[in-house]
């Protein structure tokens, strides 16, 4: 069955990009991806509408980045309106000093810088914050990563229009109320609803996740609320 | 290689400048006033309650008007004389500007006040096809700009200076023949103090050959040590240093062009050639450049320049070319560029690494990363690219600082004991808050017109100002979560009981 699935994917034009697959610690979300591996060497799109959700998106993405950066990787954070507080990355298992921040004035420059950065094979990941990206621009980024095998993340907060892009996936992360730890008062571990709206050659879905003890963990309690996973190919 | 020097003497430096300026202005405004360059005119300045002539042009000099004359006397000699006000320090400024312009002929140009320039042209003349052609070119170019000059070339500065002012043709003194050239000249040609020259004339010594053989001891006794020094300088027995207007970069490559370059392709070829020679030299010396300047000297006297910088020493031609390439379109060749110069003001040791079998493993030490940063920096400016290292401060805005380089090691660890929000507002925003009792987290807060009901909260975490850095009130931070599950970082500035406290929102937790 698995072999047949792989064959189908190959016939669909899916290139198994990286033999050195990184375990992103995504647990059973993995099943949604083609070949059950998080697509590296691709551009992922994260969308959010609220400032609060942008923080949640950043948190989930930081969780992914921490496994992607490993022990020595470096990454670039390109933005025209950065609010990220570098020391906070440490609580997501990332050494903030391994990030290089490029703060620009215009979004056009962000796309240019991201295109340039994605061509550099020395980086583990490139994060670009932008409101809008055209299909052509996202196609350029996709072409850049196909050469260099760098993974790109696009953060789109306060987007105006959710247009078609050439990105491999589209994620939407929203905050959920944290659950109390051992019935103690105060705020518990960060909890998010992770919606995979679109994934090329995979299945989209919705999961509840928690960042706990330096790992992304599924929250089983609320799994009952999860709507049925739709079959969809990109 | 034997040294060669050129001395340029501007015979009417300031008056020439006034004439050039008036001509340019007249052309610009279309006026048809008689041109100054065709009239006798003088410059004047007040001195001891009289108007004294400070400079006269060639026509005025022919009428017998010389600098130092009282203006009224000159008017008596020639009533139609044009008179203009002199500008103080004009000649120094002009000489400096002309010296910078002359860098196209040689990197070492010095100002020789009040009316001359000195050029060290050792090893430069062959590029123009010989000494005579070189000197001719300088004089022709300066004449074309409107300056009346005399220039001479010799093995010593002293003889070049003397020949430019007192010598007869030919003004290029062949190598080794400078003493012969000096012999028929008057004593003033030795750059003597005024009274020493007068005394020599009084003694009937009107030519240098008459006293050059005299015993040194008696010359020194009569005319002082300055006289002997000048004589030795002219003869080449004493070294004479000149102070260039622009310090010469030790790592510099020059490319003069036979024909002025106007096309982008031409400029690219020039840059490529210069980079190749410079990088070859750097590689031999195991060095790499950290910053470089590419200059183009235009025909009309302007200098076009572009600068680049690198994060780590580099002598990688194609990488450096790429950095320049982004800025190349900013060069305006106008009528053409006749000389290209590539300088490396900042050079550091760079030990060639062993060629790698496969590409680097990535990370901050990877050369490809620093090359990427260089490329980005050229386009967006190095100040917008930052890497941060922790700093030992509790105040959130000061808890990290920009790192000096990509390789800078941490001096302290990133703190993990206190949770910090992932997104922090650049400046905290005011909120309206309902809090039940002092030191208790708020129940409600209103931000951007939306009411948030707080369900869970942690805190307070008090962060004090560091009095040695900044005076002000402390902050009491609370981590709160509202009904919808959004998590915020709020703080109260100041003490609750003082009634001057204010509430702020500072960040968003993931």
Describe this structure as you would to a colleague.
The complex is a heterodimer of chains A (234) and B (510). With 234 residues, chain A is of the alpha/beta class. Chain A has one domain: Rossmann fold, CATH 3.40.50. Chain A contains four helices and nine strands; from the N terminus they run αβαββαβαβββββ. Chain A has a nine-stranded mixed beta sheet with strand order 3-2-4-5-1-6-7-8-9, with helices on both faces. In chain A, helix 3 packs parallel to helix 4. The mean pLDDT of chain B is 86. Chain B is 29% helix and 29% strand. The longest helix of chain B is centred in the middle third of the chain and has 21 residues. Chain B is of the alpha+beta class. In chain B, a hairpin with a 2-residue loop joins strand 16 and strand 17. Chain B has a seven-stranded antiparallel beta sheet with strand order 14-20-19-18-17-16-15, with no helix packed on it. Chain B has a four-stranded antiparallel beta sheet with strand order 5-6-1-7, sandwiched between helices. A four-stranded antiparallel beta sheet of chain B has the order 8-11-9-10. The interface between A and B is large, with 56 and 58 residues. Strand 3 of chain A pairs antiparallel with strand 12 of chain B, so a sheet runs across the interface. Chain B: It comes from Chryseolinea serpens.
